[in-house]
Specification:
This is DUF429 domain-containing protein. This protein is α/β, with parallel strands linked by helices. The protein has helices spanning about 5, 50-60, 95-105, 115-120, 150-155, 175-185, 210-215, 230-240, 250-265, 270-275, 280-285; strands spanning about 10-15, 25, 30-35, 40-45, 50, 65-70, 130, 135, 190-195, 205. It has one domain (about 1-294).
Length: about 290
């Protein structure tokens, strides 16, 4: 099978900018949809902010059939570099799905699909860098550990953060852990590529990194955030999308979702993104992959 042949058609393209913040409703979560038939991407409104439970319902019940759905979070933690997610912990899970189940089980009492109990777990916390200068003895120092796909992102000019790092505005560790609780609930209901193989039809979830979409739209990695409708329309035009035609400021969560939905519409046709050079079956099951990293 060639790389061109592995690409398949979708009817809708959804991008979800995620949040791992504590609380019920999150203005940091944004949802945008682009139609394969054309037109500009459209934000799905949530005036008070989305809850993670509402996003789960969208994923399982409300998004149109045959959608490519991108979630801006890490679908797993580094494994291959140390041959374990949590080296030295006898309960360390053997693969990504087991990791999702573990996070969800430990956080069962946490409201709003948060992951506080996992971050504060007496053993799990040893592997994370947390606020207040609390660096676990097994964090590894420096920038922390990285998945294979994140190393490939760096070669593309991106600046990935370790999912074991929970400190800083650009960290994605908390988003990834809360996202794993959602992913666990998708098991048997919605495939998550490449942990699940790409189905011949129907919807599928992929991990996205919105900076990749911004770079494809003509932005640099250091200037990936878009905060005006004028700049947003320029980025959309670079992706072959009609403009929104609005003026003035826009929050970067909304612009991330809009640009990435438009990017998914074109990127989904690139067979190399579905069969990246650095991905194999073991990496897929242990660490997952970021769509768009070839």
């Amino acid at each position: 099978m060639t790389k061109q042949q592995i690409a398949r058609a979708f009817d809708h393209f959804v991008a979800i900018d995620w949040s791992g913040a504590i609380g019920s409703r999150h203005r940091g979560i944004a949802v945008a949809i682009a139609d394969a038939a054309g037109g500009p991407p459209v934000l799905v409104p949530a005036p008070q902010g989305w809850t993670r439970e509402e996003i789960l319902r969208l994923l399982t019940e409300e998004f149109p059939a045959n959608s490519l759905i991108g979630l801006d979070l890490g679908t797993s933690l580094p494994f291959l570099d140390r041959k374990a997610f949590f080296p030295g912990w006898e309960d360390s899970p053997p693969d990504a799905r087991s990791l999702w189940a573990m996070v969800d089980q430990i956080c069962a009492a946490d409201e709003h699909l948060s992951a506080t109990s996992f971050v504060d777990h007496p053993i799990a916390s040893r592997y994370f860098r947390r606020h207040g200068g609390r660096e676990g003895v097994a964090f590894g120092g420096g920038r922390g550990r990285f998945r294979v796909t994140e190393c490939a992102q760096a070669l593309m000019g991106c600046k990935p953060y370790s999912n074991f790092n929970l400190v800083g505005a650009a960290q994605v560790g908390k988003s990834s852990l809360t996202g794993m609780r959602v992913l666990h609930r998708l098991t048997g209901r919605l495939p998550v590529w490449p942990i699940d193989s790409l189905p011949q039809n129907g919807s599928v979830v992929v991990e996205i990194y919105t900076a990749l979409a911004a770079m494809a739209a003509g932005r640099s990695a250091s200037r990936s955030k878009i905060r005006s409708h004028e700049d947003l329309d320029i980025a959309l035009a670079n992706l072959g999308s009609p403009p929104l035609g609005k003026a003035g400021p826009i929050d970067d969560h909304s612009s991330d979702a809009l640009v990435t939905a438009a990017w998914l519409r074109t990127a989904s046709r690139n067979g190399a993104y579905w069969q990246p050079e650095g991905l194999n079956a073991k990496i897929a099951q242990m660490e997952g992959w970021t769509f768009g990293v070839s």
